[in-house]
């Protein structure tokens, strides 16, 4: 029976000769069959040991253009951008994701463990996040000039008309358990129409609500007055 032979991998070292940078550029061009061999070669032959104080990436067409790193380990981490090395696999069974940096793996593992060590620093907010970048995005809810906030999904808007348009999405998904059923509207400057809408809904008899074909039983009677 015919067996398909595995495709042989060929990895090439594109480290430039430091002594010929001002002349026509010439790269190392040594080839390797495994990533481990390529990484070992670059680390030992080009990056050098602790005696090296020049932590510059000389990989061909590196966008850093000769800018030095402050430490060797930072250069080693950077070189993975060129080689494609990802030495940090996720240990959780069935995941299969791999990462170039240990810090990225640490953040990823929180998707499995559920840990959220980054708490919102805004007083009164209890939201927590798995990484600092998600917390930073969330902080715009508090710091940006967008006072009209959706209670269902935390989206915020600068004008109440934009929020009303957005709430139509939740109206179409209305259910008794939906937060939109109670209010769905939060604003640091609530519109005056709110009190009027509440009074009008209080005067509406149950029979009138039942006869309204557009009314969603999973939403409050005055929902359309607020959001449509």
Automatic annotation (TrEMBL):
Residues 164-228 are annotated as: Disordered. It is found in: Nucleus. InterPro entries: GLI-like, Znf-C2H2_ZIC1-5/GLI1-3-like, Znf_C2H2_sf, Znf_C2H2_type, Znf_ZIC. Residues 60-87, 88-117, 118-147, 148-175 form the C2H2-type domain. Coiled coil: none annotated. GO terms for molecular function: DNA-binding transcription factor activity, RNA polymerase II-specific; RNA polymerase II cis-regulatory region sequence-specific DNA binding; zinc ion binding. Its main location: nucleus. Belongs to the GLI C2H2-type zinc-finger protein family. The keyword Zinc-finger applies. It comes from Ceuthmochares aereus. This is ZIC3 protein. Keywords: Developmental protein, DNA-binding, Metal-binding, Nucleus, Repeat, Zinc, Zinc-finger. GO terms for cellular component: nucleus. It holds the Pfam family zf-C2H2_15. The gene is Zic3.
């Amino acid at each position: 029976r015919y067996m398909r032979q595995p495709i042989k991998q060929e990895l090439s070292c594109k480290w430039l000769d430091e002594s010929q940078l001002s002349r026509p550029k010439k790269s190392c061009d040594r080839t390797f069959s495994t990533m481990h061999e390529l990484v070992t070669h670059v680390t030992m032959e080009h990056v050098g040991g602790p005696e090296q104080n020049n932590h510059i990436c000389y990989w061909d067409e590196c966008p850093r253009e000769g800018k030095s790193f402050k430490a060797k380990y930072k250069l080693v981490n950077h070189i993975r951008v060129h080689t494609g090395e990802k030495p940090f696999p996720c240990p959780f069974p069935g995941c299969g994701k791999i990462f170039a940096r240990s810090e990225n793996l640490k953040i990823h593992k929180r998707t499995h463990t559920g840990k959220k060590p980054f708490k919102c620093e805004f007083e009164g907010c209890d939201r927590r996040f798995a990484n600092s970048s998600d917390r930073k995005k969330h902080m715009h809810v508090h710091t940006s000039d967008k006072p009209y906030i959706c209670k269902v999904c935390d989206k915020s808007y600068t004008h109440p008309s934009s929020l009303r348009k957005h709430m139509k999405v939740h109206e179409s998904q209305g259910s008794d358990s939906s937060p939109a059923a109670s209010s769905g509207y939060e604003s640091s400057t609530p519109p005056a129409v709110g009190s009027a809408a509440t009074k009008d809904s209080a005067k509406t008899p149950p029979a009138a609500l039942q006869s309204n074909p557009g009314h969603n039983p999973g939403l409050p009677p005055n929902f359309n007055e607020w959001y449509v």
